[in-house]
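> Could you send the Carboxypeptidase prediction when you get a chance?

Sure thing. Input:
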Amino acid sequence: MLLVLLHIFLTFVLTQSAPQDSLVTNLPGFNGSLNSKHYAGYVTVDESHGRNLYYYFVESESNPSKDPVVLWLNGGPGCSSFDGFVFEHGPFNFEKPATKGALPKLQPNPYSWSKVSNIIYLDSPAGVGFSYSKNVSDYKTGDIQTAYDSHIFLLKWFELYPEFQANPLFLSGESYAGVYVPTLANQVVIGIENGTKPTLNFKGYMVGNPVTDDKIDGNALVPFAHGMSLISDELFENTTKACHGNFFNPETEKCDNLLQKVDQTIGHLNVYDILEPCYHHGETEENKNSNSKLPLSFKELGKTEKSLAVRKRIFGRAWPYRGNVKDGIVPSWPELTSANGYVPCVDDGVATAWLNNPDVRKAIHTVEESVVDAWSLCTDQIQYNHDTGSMLNFHKKLTSKGYRVLAFSGDHDMCVPHTGTETWTRLIGVKIVDEWRPWFSNNQVAGYTQGYANNLTYLTIKGSGHTVPEYKPRESLHFYKRFLDGVPI
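Output:
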């Protein structure tokens, strides 16, 4: 009996540890009680510079004291993790208002990842979303500094929320977070091995349609396009022969000309999902009134005032392609879009309307508008240096230590095609322990998977585009839960 009372007392004490001034008590646009506790606020990762990272934390709707804590990062570089919160796996579905200027309506998301985990949405690096620095020099940054800052964030966050220190910790993200996540995981592991306090109970990470290696990702497009019947056998064979299989860095004029022909052939497709329409060539009555399966955030191009920033939403097609990154410096998005003549099919209107509402900003504890004047899905104010190179060695190191790793790909994404991800998971160099097979959700084939030694898994999601939980929410929650539980998918 004494032990029971002691357990109740300790549970009460620990559940009171979270900073109460960070508690979110109401959300404009949502009627009803939240399914779990929400917290939001800032963690200062550099006192001398005043560098502050913003987070939104959703407690698990199941068993927050035991369920894993998962950090979510969107890509870019330069895109807010509210992308994941609003459009992918957050606790709400956002309904576009019928009246211009009205707030979106929020409804519970039955496939929210908070059904089975605690989840932190982090705006990183400083200058992205609601994160900021008082020293503008911090907006010139890169992979190494971003990983360092995110590690500091985690250490300080767990000091603020000590009741979650014993929970399993996982990192997750998509697109350019294919760089953010393994570099941060490496910092976390170094900290654990060096005895850094608090000790993080790190278990593994997952990356979706992840930027990984410029050469591998850059060579992935042509085989993907051919496999999807987007280019002819003749064009594929001629290009492969002229380029000697090297599509990333053409060495001859003939190769370059054929690659341009490939680009022209596929250039009008929706890079995030080749099955879905793009509206940048003019909207017709037919596609205007169609019942497209395209997620709300992808439906209409150029419909918001943030159309230029929207092009940055994901560090998209420009990343793996030849000639776009020079000396490690990621060029500006206007430069990329003008160079490639490419405009993604993305609409950020719902998120922009909600997150820039003064009542919403007050409710979720953002800094005043004099510091961060407006939220945008992606920012053009950071200058980002890709200074860590290929992620292969990071993955090799982390899997060799037994950390659980899942690389998943929507198989209709042309932004970071599955052909590249399948290649690099194989190049990790560990033996196959679960041969290529279908996996199932709701008694249907949901994709294909292959399991490797050292807890490495590769997974495709059938019919999904770049942002998998947005396209396939049911299937995503299914594989997400099984990955966290450490059971085969």
